[in-house]
Amino acid sequence: MTKEHEDMPMLTDADANMLDRLVDAEFDPSKITGLDGGDQARLERIISILGLLDSYPVAELTGEDRTTLVNATLARIDRAESEQADRMHFEPGSSPVSRMGVPELIAVAAIIILGLSIIFPMLNATRETSTRSVHRNNLAQIGGAFFNHAGDNDGVLANTDAPEWKTLFGESTNRLDMQPLVEQNYMNPEVPGLQGESLWSYQTQPRTHAFQSSVPVRTVLMGNRNPYMTSEVVSQFSYQQDEVNFSVVLIESHVWSPSVLMSDNSVEDISGHAYEGDDMRIPNPKCRLLEQADLFLTHPIAR
Amino acid sequence: MEGMLDHQTDEALLGAYREGDREAFSVLVERYSNELVLFLTKQTGSRAAAEDVFQETFLQIHNSASTFDLDRRFKPWLYTIAVNKGRDWHRRNARRKAVSLSANVGKDGDGQSFADLMAADMPGPSEGMQESEMRQRVKHVVDSLPNHYREILLLSYFQKMSYTQIAETLEIPLGTVKSRLHSAVAAFGTGWNQDETDTEEREE
Asked: What is the CATH number of the domain that holds B141?
């Protein structure tokens, strides 16, 4: 309380004593008797200045005011009570879950669907990407095998009359068996996915033509799908050796990031040059040799 | 029923309310509505604020009813809460500018006594001043007092509380009650004189 004594206005001791007596008398001067002249004057002065307080402008409450105020007070207490009850209530039947209406359910479902719609394509895209990189590698391997074989056989990409190519392409099936190429050391037998009849198939071009074993294969289409079945994306490049043009065309069943096997056996992304259509007409100049292709090689993509 | 409740003590009414008698509480609120609102109007300087603080006070009474010791008296407790709620209100509305009361009065100053100050040509309530003007001046001086002076002045003069009751209500020692009331009265007197001087200067 020391702080309170700093800068406090002070009364004289005589004034203070008189004030104390007034407080005891509940400010009724008539209760204070037996004063001398000086004290009487002091009493009157203190009463007169404190009496000023009675002039503080404040109106008594009317009966109506009081009723209104009492009702407002009780209502405020009720309101506070019910707010508190809302916060505290965890009885069965009033749990947040059971109070969830149709709009809330729809909102929750929408959020879940939104989440799934973001996650699933991501998962699919990841799977596609890894599958595609395997197939690209396979294309590079098989392309290299064909071109190496062509280089060793006077520039003829594949003579289908040769016994090994008959084996390779079979007589009537469109399955392609890479085993002869592997056996002739044109392909690395360790590369996964290259071997086995089921992985590769072939078609001749144009599609109305039956495969003719007497025609040397000069143009090869390579892709991850049978072009006549899907033929979504087609591209090609040409390869020249000993004045003979060879073409390799990549068929991609996915419009995003189509890739093509290049003459140096690299796999190049040709999106933007690719053509999407349901037949083999390729307006893209890069793909103009497609119709001259003798053979499609396709690789079914696992989906 | 209501008539019966009207004659019960504050403490009995609060006890009944604790037992679930809502009517008892409304009698209690009604009983103090005029008195406490008048007190709070002077305390806050505004009827609207006073009614708001009044409601907060009784909300607090409601919330704390179960902790009240029914052997104690209700009224000092009510005023303790009301004063505290009034202080909260002032804290929230701390834009009021206090008038400086650092003027020296009494034995610490230049020997001028409080009685001298009051004797110095102080007009009577009806002399030379319009009634409404004087009311506004009283309000201005009271509103300008520091909170702790105003509280004790109101409790003492208007609520006719004894020093002991004030000590209980404000939860301060008896000695502090006395010295603070003395200071409050001196501050009011000084403030009144100061205000009068200012008014005259403005008029000149």
From this structure: 1.10.10.10
